[in-house]
Design goal:
Blueprint lengths: L1 H30 L4 H30 L1
Helix pairs in contact: 1-2
Length: 66
């Protein structure tokens, strides 16, 4: 049960950090003078990039530690 809790908490933390990064990217893009759709696209790209990076790091760690 402890392993499941660790996985769930780690997943939640990664999603929250991805949302924070996406929000910051969207706000900074909007402050730079971009339109709302452009800022939303930049935020979505940042969210996807953070999740992709987290998945890649998890894959590498799983191979190294096993």
């Amino acid at each position: 049960m402890n392993h499941l809790a660790t996985v769930l908490l780690s997943t939640g933390l990664v999603v929250v950090l991805a949302l924070l990064a996406a929000t910051a990217a969207g706000v900074l893009t909007r402050l730079d003078g971009a339109t709302y759709p452009a800022a939303l696209m930049r935020a979505a790209a940042t969210f996807a990039a953070v999740l992709t990076l987290a998945a890649a790091v998890t894959g590498v760690l799983a191979q190294v530690l096993s």
